[in-house]
Amino acid sequence: MTSPIRDAVAHLAPGYFALVMGTGIISVGLHDAGWEVPSDILMWIAIVAYAVLWVLYIWRASAFRKHLVADLRDPAKAFGFFTIIAGTDVLAVRLSMAGFGGISLWLLLFAVVLWFVFGYALPWQVLLTRDGKPILARTNGSWFIWAVASQSVAVAVSQLQPLLGGGPWAGMLAVLAWSVGVSLYVAVAILVLLRIVHFGITPQDFDPTFWVTMGALAIAVVAGSGVVDMDHSPMVDAVRPLVAATVAVFWTFCAWLIPALVGAGVWRHFVHRVPLRYEPTLWSMVFPIGMFSVASILVGRVDSLPAVEQIGLIGVAVALVVWAIVFAGMLHHLVLVLWGGLRHRR
Q1: Burial of 142 (0-12, 13-18, 19+ CB in 10 A)
Q2: What tens-digit pLDDT sequence spans the chain (346 residues)?
Q3: I need a surface site. Which of 273, 293, 294, 325 has the fewest CB within 10 A?
Q4: d(Cα 192, Cα 205) in Å, to the nearest integer?
């Protein structure tokens, strides 16, 4: 009989680094709102979660390689691995705010390398899937994390530009990542819409990853604002007016999406009675709420829109409550797994 702990590691969700993404971005939002103590607490939780998840992922890769390979080729799960990149970048940005510039630069370098490797390898693995099931039918909200990972690189590069020194390379990388992220968002949105039109979607299929539909645009707002504020370089200067024009449009569409996502949640859990219990994909809902809040604060302050900034401040408080509920659910789940492991040893 398999130990519950080993079984949990074997089936560890590919997108669990969304825990770091959600915790880190809410820490950033709390910092922007001036709530330093809870911001610092969440920053350290994100650091610990990042380290623990790497241990678990490496354990899984060495001991349960078949499960890992299966996830890499599963269209419904593979794109969750992009949370590793986004989580690394979000943590790099938060650590730079805390004065850990050296560590932030190493994290950024690591994220950029992973972005290039994963950006080509993971989609190719999915396209190689030959299990007799249509790939389009398994397209879901996790595919948007591909775009989020690209935008997270743009955010981190623009935020850490002063630490990167002079030269045009930072501007080129930030513009590249932002442009790729926007293009991927459009492409994935078309695929998801085609999936819904051709194959439909059940309440069970509409999991929390669909919130990334909004989060991927919210991070594009933050990334775009960062690119616009970057120092002079030929590439940045060439696209600055275009990028600046998209920020308000993207933020408005994010705001429009929120009632639709909330309504879909009501349809799933209250109309069709899908049980509302802890699952790792809930972190893919926490992150978009936090990112929208940060984007709102940024847009409100940069464009002198007090109402938008107020929305962001309220959003940070809401995101913190949602984070606390999901975090408590995760701890309860973890206790059950550990207790099961102890009983198995006896």
Answers
A1: buried
A2: 467 889 999 999 999 999 999 999 999 999 999 999 999 999 999 999 999 999 999 999 999 999 999 999 899 999 999 999 999 999 999 999 999 999 999 999 999 999 999 999 999 888 877 677 888 888 999 999 999 999 999 999 999 988 887 678 899 999 999 999 999 999 999 999 999 999 888 999 899 999 999 999 999 999 999 999 888 888 998 999 999 999 989 999 999 999 999 999 999 999 999 998 999 999 999 999 999 999 999 999 988 889 999 999 999 999 999 999 999 999 999 998 888 766 766 6
A3: 273
A4: 12
